[in-house]
Amino acid sequence: MTDSKFKKTVKMFQKLPGVGPRQAARFVLALLEKPESELQELGTSLYNLKEDIKLCPECFNLSDNGLCVVCSSHNRDKTKVLVIEKVTDLDSIEKTGLYKGLYHVLGGSINPLDGVLPEHLRIEELKQRAGKLANGLPAQAGSDLELILATNPNTAGETTALYLKDLFNGEKKIKLTRLGRGLASGSHLEYADEMTIRNALDSRK
Ligand SMILES: [Zn+2]
């Protein structure tokens, strides 16, 4: 027996992160209550999603066109790169206005059990970019590029941080720090409040 059209639509929503069958059904029922015009607008946005929203070629933040707002700004500190898992982490930090450096979005964290290996993340891109940024800094001592590892304080995030520390070990002019202990183990940067982010940034080491 094939699924009803309702069930089929519910199953599509279930493919989104964190959405279970009941919540997916609620989404579909809520959409059924919407006027046709709103549904068409949503449909058009989805249809053109990949065409309309691109990733920044430098940091992999979302961008409507070319470099993202962070990379194209002249007011950012180009001696710091905050390395994060997802664009939503970047949003949480940007909202606080506490951080003035650059970002690098890895696209996830190393998790062999889920089949996520280093080559699936934008680690090679980070290596290339960090090398280029570090080379552009003045030659005198103390002007290193700081890579602030801000992957989540859970197993996959810690694995990723260790992998990166290893990868950049011994690189000249590149210094690695880890976001501080303000973040509780197992928590997510994405949901951290301003105070927590401030503490984590201040206590990086
Ligand atoms: Zn960017």
TrEMBL record:
The gene is recR. InterPro entries: DNA_Rcmb_RecR (IPR000093), Rcmb_RecR (IPR023627), Rcmb_RecR_Znf (IPR015967), TOPRIM_dom (IPR006171), TOPRIM_RecR (IPR034137). The keyword Protease does not apply. HAMAP family: RecR (MF_00017). May play a role in DNA repair. It seems to be involved in an RecBC-independent recombinational process of DNA repair. It may act with RecF and RecO. One of its GO terms (molecular function) is DNA binding. Belongs to the RecR family. This is Recombination protein RecR. SMART domains: TOPRIM. The lineage of its organism: Bacteria, Candidatus Yanofskyibacteriota.
